[in-house]
Amino acid sequence: MAKVPVQFTLNGEEKADFVDGGATLLKVLREKVGDTSAKAGCQQGTCGSCSVIIDGELRLSCLTLAETCGGAEIHTTGGLATDGVLHPLQRAFMDEFAAQCGFCTPGMIMAAKVLLDRNPNPSHEDVVEALSGNVCRCTGYEPIIRAVLTAARSNSQNAA
Amino acid sequence: MPLALKTCSTISEAGTALKEAGTRYLGGGTLVVRAANEGDVSVSTLVRSTDPALSSISIDGGRATIGASVTMSAVARHPGLSSIAKVAKAVGGPAIRNMATVGGNLFAASPYGDFTVALLALDATVHTTEGHLGAEEFLAGRDGRVVSAVSFDVPSAEQFRFVKISRIKPKGVSVLSIAALVENAGGKINGARIALGCMADRPIRAKAAEKALAGATLTEEGVAPAVAAIGEGTRPLTDAIASAWYRGEVLPVHFRRLLLE
Amino acid sequence: MKLAKSYFADQRTDDLKELGQGLPRSDVPGHVTGKTTYFADRTFPGMLYLKMVRSPHHHARIRSVDLSDAEKHPGVHRILTHKDIPHNLYTILILIQVGPEDEHVLAEDKVRWKGEAVVAVLADSERAANEAAAKVKVDYEVLPDVLDIDSALAPGAPIVNEHHGQNYYMYDSGQSRKVRYGDVEKGFAEADHILEQTYYSSPIEQAPMETTGCIVTPDGNDRFTCYTNTQAMFFTLDNTSIILQMPGHKLHMVGGTVGGGFGGKVDVTVEPIAILAAKLTGRPVSFIYGRYEEMQISSPRAAEKIVLKDGVMKDGRIVARQVWGYTDAGAYSRHSPYGAQKGAAHYPGPYTIPNVWVDTWCVYTNRTPSSAMRGFGVTIADFALEVQMDKLARLIGMDPLEFRFINAYRDGDMKAHRQPTTGAALIECMQEASRVANWPIAEKYLEMSSYKEV
Question: Which chain B residues have a beta carbon less than 8 Å from that of C134?
Fold first, then answer.
């Protein structure tokens, strides 16, 4: 079986490995690199549980071949807290009861982070649109939307 | 055999690689990687091209040329393509739009391929490794050619109408989609091109309705014959989203609304 | 949030300290940091992947199974058939003596639903397992099928499951669970109006975000650790013990956070075969449903057919209720004999009716076996009952909410299945609902109480 080398940064740290040519980034992150925060919910691009940020853009790691990520900057929810300090989105998801079983949560947080990075003061509608590729089955969407809006508010208060 | 990825620097190199058995072109991965994940073992080598020309958008004299690797997000945010931005925005969620390509959309089976519905209504030209052809002709064959770009005359916002109906708000898989390019002169319709998604295994033109619209006015009475004819020649899809019966029933409703909105 | 403390004020010491306060969930820090460990967040060296070859037919006889090409496929380590399973015939509720055993872990002579497991392929990659599965040749003789309750119970219908002998579950009470209370015919004879309606529901998939699965590691001492997302750890442990004929102490079942279940993960479908695979290969084994399997193979909420016949007086009293409830179990029992039985006790609803007659049936069809989902056995019953209540109120020209006050059960009332009512709060809930929904009701209903002074 032909393995190919791939090198990228994950949450700011350099990672390198030999992967199968057809291996998805999701599989490589979870099984080779050891970051299991992205989840395999459908592996069809339908549920958003595997969402990660690649070079600043939201992507589905289940449909991205790892080999195509050479040199990329990848961010996951697993690396969002810095030195044990939670990101405002993580704080808000806790406070607003926005994570019940928790399986969709890392993907939701990635989708929300891309939104807030570009639009620090989103409307309710903006949040709905930003999360429209992420499915939740138990928490319910309203607490999640509230959490994103709360995080945006706390960000702008911190900036002020 | 494990799945392999072959990366080619030029599109013609990719075209040659695709002549091998068991190969398929990899665009954004939303169709072919999905199939592999679901256990489809018919493809053993994915071929992609990193040719920068595939990712460019150019607009020259009102005609847009969009490279096959251009994503839905790139179309949606391009200032020169604002009249069709809503089509690109109707595809998937944000992550899918960052991955799904214009070229890949041409190969999507129903209920996917909403962007291609628009390309069909715009009478787009499909540029391939083996020459150019019209979108309708391309869709009839959809063979192993590699698509390098699509080109079309950019419509005005007044001319171009598009609707995608989903069961989930704000986004979901298509129940159906309709794209229409309507030339309206002095209250009368000069000509119209209408394309439908989910009304066959791939996007199709609604030629009977197009004919019925010629010379009609955009009024309840004026569009009635076209609304009555919109289902002609369709063979709607039955899937987990909707039955053929349901799709057939709601098609005239949404078509009428699209014309009169 | 404001607590309505006026209700039952004399019955409680008002010393609650937690209600009305915000409390963080104990597991939420793990969720938001992606650190919560789900069963699949594990990788083991040398892990094999299990791919199930499933029936493409609703009902068919298996003439032959040819594994020769599949076994030779590169990467394949072993292919399991029914011959490898120590005790291949099982039923989950045998643990509480609800038999007969009626389901094969891997099909033997027949398949009874589209998706039934036939053989299990073990390979060192998912890709190799999929490729080899495509090379398994099963020769089927397709049989006539029944796909709904009515055709299953029609005379001369093909028998779905020979272990039952007829297309319904035989309870100790006969072909249905029965509730008999008062004299329902007398009640109908006295009634001002009679309304009989039939209600249907379709199967509903739980669709959890995390698909069903498990990962098993052999520990080298004929003991196995099974990381699973089951919602029913001891059903799984005990049934696995029976199927594999292994004492429980050899089976170390590790549960944990489940990525959504809603009842869809209480059946025992992945663990026994994965543990057996680990035992026979000596390798760690991963058996995780894909999304298609989760939607089509994992057991949904049952389809139901419910016939409700009510006798009602002009003054609003329901004097007789007769119910025929049918649960579509699919091809095998799983938890459906229990679900159908639960319906029998539930059918009068939260209403006091003097004459009640209920028959609930657990029916077998060639559909995906159905099982638990959030209140199975009663949720669809409640849909039918409450639609029927609205229809009855309309029939006698009464406000639907006031109609429910007249019939609501109160403390001390005897329920049809002969459990006295205690701790009722329906009246109070409806009073609050009337206020919150701004749905006015007559003063006398606002003065009612569930509580009866003894």
Answer: 41
